[in-house]
Amino acid sequence: MHIAMIASECEPFAKTGGLADVVDALSRALGELGHEVDVYLPRYRGVTPPEATERLELMVPTGTGVVPVVLHSGRARGYRIRLVDHPASFDRDDFYTIYGTDYPDNGFRFALLGRTALETMRAEGRPADVLHAHDWEGAPAILLLRHRHAVSHGLPFDSMATVFTCHNLAFHGWVPRAQVEAQLDLPATVGVPAGVDLLREGILAADIVNTVSPTFARESLSAEMGSGVDDALRRVGDRYLGIINGIDSTLWDPATDAAIPARFSAANLAGKATCKAALCQQLGLDPNGPLFAMVGRLDPQKGFDLLARAAPDMLAAEARICVLGTGDMRLIGALQHLASEYPSRLAIAARFDRGLARWMYAGADAFVMPSRFEPSGQGQMIAMRYGALPVVRATGGLADTVIDADGSPDSGTGFVFGPADPAALAQAARRAITAFGDRAKWSAIQQRAMATDFSWSRPAREYVSAYERAIDLAATRARPAAV
Fold first, then answer.
1. Low-confidence ranges of the chain (pLDDT < 70)
2. What is the DSSP string of 369-421?
């Protein structure tokens, strides 16, 4: 089938987080299954089109008139990347914000992305079988398809299936009513009197909606975890699915990773000890104890505050701790204070450093992810592949990917705890420290963790099933009513 991906990020062209990895890896996995995938992406500042790029000039209608757009199309890794080039919209210092505040015309910018995708299909005379939009930035494509393109130019847009993936429910893409027509070119019937919540409207308009793990799909139906769209998700009913993300198993492979101090595998872990020694030397840590690593955005959502409060208990049990990330200055300060008290046992690198992150995955004995919520999570999967056993809270994708080693001795792959409090994290860490002291037990858990298949093969097939269901639903939706 032919799939049109609408996304604001895609590795290696534009990335701020995991969305970019998912769009790229899923598109490649779908290509390997024989499907044709076009990824529509803004051409942000600094984004270079691939070699052998085709150029298509379009006049794209918007709420404020027709604007000229250039579409650059070239082959990526198993799919076609289609860069939407409109400098006034995308040639900016940041993808989404200025001085930490959303660009006021974000609605227009990402509506232009979706509208260009639809206009490209019209110009080429070939609608996709499925339009797959990601997060609120992709939602305008679905809304424009429903409200502006359904009977456009004689093409069967009315039967194009739509799938909407919610990676992060915290960001909604709000457009005030006074700006809806100009920014989004949508009728007044869309949204509420105050304006349009693009995330909500994308959920309500799509044939199939999914988030990125089965457990988070269930959690997000509650007011506590639904970020204000739980009622919309409940209205979707059984058309709301949870499909766990994968990771790029070729990119994340300790047996071939040239960016770590030594290569290793489940069959030969000698290189992991070398990686731990090198990491501890770089960070000034004493290597004689289990080393716990935590990498990510220093934010209460990720549970860094729980680690800061659990750390003294963990250090008293002879743990070593290393932390990498940027974010909340209060959390950074608390961890820096601990590092000054325990300089050989706790280190914090308050920066973004991909190279050091790889060293931490490779060198750590355990990897901490005490998130308050985590729709999918990739860190725990990467850590398991590198033999760093995860210590995680039972939420979202963490609950779906990590099996507690004490609760399931024959199949466990890490250490799982429930309440979002420092005592529960400290207790789980102490269980990991105890297991670390039993080399046979630790090795068995490590072998199972490293053998877990987190490739995109299975998730890609689940998306294909979702596409097929969306196509069936769209055909029913588009069929004229009987008279």
1. 149-156, 478-483
2. E--S--SS-SHHHHHHHTT-EEEEESSHHHHHH--BTTTSTTT--BEEE-SSS
Same structural domain, 300 and 217: no
299 shares a domain with 365 = yes
Is residue 140 domain-shared with residue 37, that is, in the same domain? yes
- pTM for the structure as a whole: 0.92
Regarding whether 467 and 446 lie in a shared domain, the answer is no
Q: Are residues 162 and 291 in the same domain?
A: no
Same domain, 310 and 378: yes
Domains identified in the chain, total number: 2
For residue 155, the model assigns a pLDDT of 57
Structure tokens at 292: 């716990």
Which residues form the domain of 330?
Answer: 270-451
- The answer to whether the CB of 339 falls within 8 A of the CB of 310 is no
The SS3 call for residue 167 is coil
d(CA 217, CA 214): 5
pLDDT tens, position by position, 326-335: 998 999 999 9
pLDDT digits (tens, 9 = 90+) for 113-160: 999 999 999 999 889 999 999 999 999 999 999 887 654 544 557 789
Q: What is the DSSP string of 55-102?
A: EEEEEEEETTEEEEEEEEEEE-SSSEEEEEE-HHHH-SSSSSEETTEE
Q: What is the pLDDT of residue 325?
A: 93
